[in-house]
Amino acid sequence: MNNVRFATSLHILTLLHLSGEELLSSDHIAGSVNINPAIIRKEISSLREHNLVGTREGKGGGTYLNKAAGEIRLSQVYEAVIQSPLLGRSNTPNPKCPVGRQINGVIEKLYTEAEKAMITSLDKITLEDFAKDFK
Amino acid sequence: MNNVRFATSLHILTLLHLSGEELLSSDHIAGSVNINPAIIRKEISSLREHNLVGTREGKGGGTYLNKAAGEIRLSQVYEAVIQSPLLGRSNTPNPKCPVGRQINGVIEKLYTEAEKAMITSLDKITLEDFAKDFK
DNA sequence: TTGTACTGTAATAAAAATAATTACAGAATG
DNA sequence: CATTCTGTAATTATTTTTATTACAGTACAA
Prior knowledge:
The structure is a homodimer of 135-residue chains. Chain A is mainly alpha-helical and 135 residues long. Chain A contains six helices and two strands, in the order αααββααα. Chain A has a two-stranded antiparallel ribbon with strand order 1-2. The radius of gyration of chain A is 18 Å and the shape is elongated. Chain A binds a DNA duplex (30 and 30 nucleotides) through helix 3.
């Protein structure tokens, strides 16, 4: 996962949490994250698909947390954002070689285990916990 | 880490392990992984810096495991290969925003924890264990 | 009922990361 | 000293990721 999406989503969610009831516009969020509002809206789109946030369109619209911060686990944020295997891609090895033929299966099993360990650690942390580190 | 390096290194090490005492050339390995020999040599270079393998130059040369497969933990392979944060990069947020100002620190702490959980799971598996899945 | 301020989304372009290729000097062998 | 390897750098190509632009659609509120 060599991108910035997880960090961006955490940033968005933190802002929403700390802003209480107030809806935040993508422009406002973009100003804090320091990236383009269209990217923020796209990211929010993923978060919304995972029911972590809701949005209201039109004038005065914006985004809000769809559940209490204590109910949002960082593992859910990870799930909303992940698109490629945590530990990287695979090769397309030579099927004529016994190792080449089997390695992707073996690697996938390994990666699944390792990712699970990571997700378990994220699962213990809620957005509320995360936000407590901001003074 | 959206690249293929971990998979490549695992492949290399598995071949070396299963080939016993025999030195393997980068050409031979490249044939099984199905990538360019120069990339294999570069990858081997990292593994060698981490003392996982040794190489002999010149005619008849090649690469060999530098320790017993049971002594090589997959966490070490990960360390040899990792170059960017497991969970992705950070933004360069707006320092005028309280959240923007602090978030990279908070994220780093989180990422470190999550990565540690993942590494712990890799640490339990040796190359020997890994290779047992090949029939 | 119309102007304004939002979102959603797609299309495109730009930048960055990754992988592949090529080349060649140097090492060890026989 | 020809051959077969490695090490490494330079270059190019490819893929991924991010940024930009544009505009239709929604909702509010005057």
